[in-house]
Amino acid sequence: QQKLDSLQTADKQHFIHPFTDSKDLAEKGTRVIDRAEGVYLWDIMGDKLLDAMAGLWCVNVGYGRQSIVDAVAKQMQQLPFYNSFFQCSHPPAIELAQKIASLAPKHMNNVFFTGSGSESNDTNLRMVRRYWDLKGKPSKKTIISRDNAYHGSTVAGASLGGMSGMHEQGDLPIPGVVHIAQPYWYGEGNGLSPEEFGLQAAQALEAKILDVGEDNVAAFIAEPFQGAGGVIIPPSTYWPEIKRILAKYDILFILDEVISGFGRTGKWFAAEYFDLQPDLITIAKGMTSGYVPMGGVIVSDKVADVIKQDCGEFTHGFTYSGHPVAAAAALENIRIIEQEQLIERVESDIAPYLQSRLQELAEHPLVGEVRGLGMVAAIELVKDKELKQKFDSKTGVGTFCRDACIKHGLVMRSVGDTMIISPPLIMTHGEIDELVAKATLALNDTYQYVQG
Ligand code: PLP
């Protein structure tokens, strides 16, 4: 307790936390996590927590992988850092680019490395504008995104994202980024069938292209399903219609797979899951399972052929682009996913089990909808199931439920009143049973809370 007290005091005095409500932090103190193994975390008091969030949607291979530690240590001894600017390279980054190209959709054979998902989306913005400049169409600059999307926290990332709370702070979005409605059928379907609504939501893209002028639109950016927005999965009609519209107007397509990449849907990339052929794919998180920070953009041959032609330099890059230690971690992470056949296991076994067990929670009086695919899911909490009526945001139902989960030894994230599940891909049936049992206890506590 003494150690916790002194850490919490120091934390309060010196640490500015990302995405943290300062009132909450002052009242409850920080939760200090000390160690982890497999799918479990232990806090500094020794309390064990089942991590249904894989850290922050990223620890795909689970915690405590000695072979990643060894690969990182070996690389640190061999070459802890070198850059990839000015015609320089090094084996881990070259091997990783080649490996990712072999896993990506067939028409994508190049990678631009970054340090995070946010940097990757900044890269996308600059790369699509560079592409159209080189193609002799410099007016094609605008990027269309979606409300409630999350594409990172840098100025470009937060602008591309559609979170109003982020836009309010810092005069965002920057010029040249516009948004259309998200395909959120449960909350905004307005009596339409999912198929009708999906079509309508996709057609908002065409209306926006015509509004901005097709000669001014560079790209459309989207997550295959919106993650931080509350696991919003588009109806089946959505993506085919989006594909038709993008082809009709010659607009580049950026698919942000920071969450969905590296196995979460039971495919290497959700592009395959949804039959999409993006021009650029944003990657991070599961690329290294979060052991070391790393991100990147997988680039299609169509774009790479233009960017890499003899046309001068693309004046863009980060000191840590292709960092050798991060690349070594990513290579070992990918080796584990392949060797343990985690993706096949997700698709054929563990994801169907997770989704079917979670569907049982839909019966709970507090639960409006349980939705999910692969190893990601959301439980949306509502005041009235029949009317799909939401709670007043001041009630803090999601936050209460998140804290109740912790009390029962489970980590779920809340997005408003939607509870999020995105566990490591190694979860067993028994651990999923434990997850569902603990989530039920937390839902019961939350139900009592809202009943007053
Ligand atoms: N894109 C998506 C879809 C994300 O979910 C995230 C992070 O959650 C990002 C981009 C930003 O990644 P990072 O936090 O590594 O900058």
From TrEMBL:
One of its GO terms (molecular function) is transaminase activity. InterPro entries: Aminotrans_3 (IPR005814), Aminotrans_3_PPA_site (IPR049704), PyrdxlP-dep_Trfase (IPR015424), PyrdxlP-dep_Trfase_major (IPR015421), PyrdxlP-dep_Trfase_small (IPR015422). It comes from the Bacteria. Pfam families: Aminotran_3 (PF00202). Keywords: Aminotransferase, Pyridoxal phosphate, Transferase. The keyword Transferase applies. Its cofactor is pyridoxal 5'-phosphate. Belongs to the class-III pyridoxal-phosphate-dependent aminotransferase family. NCBIfam families: PRK06105.1, PRK07480.1. This is Aspartate aminotransferase family protein. It comes from Shewanella algicola.
